[in-house]
UniProtKB/TrEMBL annotation, chains A, B:
PANTHER family: TRANSCRIPTIONAL REGULATOR, TRANSCRIPTIONAL REGULATOR, MARR FAMILY. This is DNA-binding HxlR family transcriptional regulator. The keyword Oxidoreductase does not apply. Keywords: DNA-binding, Transcription, Transcription regulation. It comes from the Bacteria. GO terms for molecular function: DNA binding. Residues 14-112 form the HTH hxlR-type domain. It comes from Microvirga lupini. PROSITE patterns: HTH_HXLR.
Length: 116, 116
DNA sequence: GCCCATAGTGTCAAAAAGGATACCGTAATG
DNA sequence: CATTACGGTATCCTTTTTGACACTATGGGC
């Protein structure tokens, strides 16, 4: 799906489309999902999402931040410390995430469902 | 987002990811959304979704069908008649669609929300 | 005979998304 | 002194996705 987030101001689609446009990208959902449980640092996210590359994770986090779904807090420490957490707006996506998880658990019978 | 539907059998992600992988693609959501209200013919869908090209619509419909979310019924008529409707599985996605719509309506204040 | 509608398909090309890899500065650790 | 961890950037390349456009068959209307 074509990325829209923070790029095209006048998105034309319906609410559903526009919602989806914020959470597309291969890893955004997972990131949001992980953050649902609490603040995480950059490398914690990397470790939680094994297949994501640094570049991709950075990218997706930047977009999520630009869309106001997550908050990025940088600590002026010497080994850099950057923490990511859901914004209020991001947290409000919980029903959507949960609806997807629910559906997946029910309709895509598989194992790793809870692991995410 | 990379398409997974019916291409890679062993999808690895969590339930949320796998769910999303079925409904990505620029137009799938809209298509499902439109079909929520009832059966539609190919060109009806085209007219309802102004910016979709024939090729894209065909493509997305085929994938949705392959994923068992919609049903394609062809009538052996002379001007071809093909009707698309949601399968039970497709209809079961309603909560997800509605959660997204709800969120969009609430968080992306704009007009065309109900039009979809 | 010509054009329209229906529901596509095929081909080509552009654009976007994603991946691989290398690199940065600093400080602690060995 | 070399290595590791941190949180990235920059560059290049491949794959995926999307779009433009032409083409198909058939039957009916004019």
């Amino acid at each position: 799906m074509p990325k829209v987030s923070s790029k095209v101001p006048g998105v034309q689609g319906c609410a559903v489309e526009r919602t989806l446009s914020l959470i597309d990208g291969k890893w955004k959902i997972v990131v949001l999902y992980k953050l649902l449980r609490g603040t995480l640092r950059f490398n914690e996210l990397r470790r939680l999402i094994p297949n994501v590359t640094q570049r991709m994770l950075t990218h997706q986090l930047r977009e999520l931040e630009a869309d106001g779904l997550i908050v990025r807090r940088v600590y002026a420490q010497v080994p850099p410390r950057v923490e990511y957490s859901l914004s209020a707006r991001g947290r409000s996506l919980e029903p959507v995430l949960m609806a997807m998880k629910q559906w997946g658990d029910t309709n895509l019978s598989s194992q790793g469902a809870q692991a995410a």
